[in-house]
Amino acid sequence: MLERALADALERADESDETALRLLDAAYEQFCRMGIRRSTMEDVARRAGVSRITAYRRFATKDALVEQVVRREFRRYFDQFLLDIQQAETAADRVVLGFASALGAIRRNPLIGGLMAVEPDVLVPSMVSDGGGTLAAVQRFVAGQLRREQQAGNVSEDVDVELVAELMTRVSASFLVTPSRVVDLDDDEQVREVARRFLVPMLRPRPGR
């Protein structure tokens, strides 16, 4: 489920269906307040002010609704990520900002971060036990960003962007899934320093780039 949500996250959602949007908003609030496991389609329909039948017409199952809510949150995250890295002047700075932005945005997200904290059995298994699908979806996004840097001449041509994206994704996922006793993830400067010391060198950026 999470893999599909991530893989499709950059696609623009159909925002013409006001009822579906109300249900998504209601589901987000419901899941943040009560968690996914304790929430029902009836709860979401009541919060959205629609009938249970209407809710099921828009989303055939609870899983389908959860997938769309998660997809929307990751799409918002990707949008914010792209805005955050625009502040950087070099490829190295974009890696540093991107890494910090990714960890911070996901951990502080009321839904995704909250579920990882209080219902890890809902999200974590889908991140690590789906044959690598979820990590592969994130890796494709990161590789795309690195490839653009390479095409712009900001990263050496001999850098294997697919492999670098894989390593960056796995480092990020590890921090998210298993809290660190060495790195304080609430300390943005410490997180950025990790990126400067260990992620940026993988790109071997050209001087002044």
Write up what this structure looks like.
There is one protein chain. It is built from 11 helices and no strands. The chain is elongated. The longest helix is centred in the middle third of the chain and has 24 residues, at 62-85. Helix 6 crosses helix 7. Helices cover 69% and strands 0% of the residues. The protein has 2 domains: 1-71, Homeodomain-like (Arc Repressor Mutant, subunit A), CATH 1.10.10; 88-208, no CATH class. With 209 residues, it is an all-alpha fold. The model has no long low-confidence stretch (mean pLDDT 83).
Topology:
Layout (H helix, E strand, L loop, with lengths): L1 H6 L10 H17 L6 H8 L3 H7 L3 H24 L5 H18 L3 H7 L1 H9 L4 H19 L9 H17 L10 H12 L10
Helix pairs in contact: 2-3, 2-5, 3-4, 5-6, 6-7, 6-10, 6-11, 7-8, 9-10
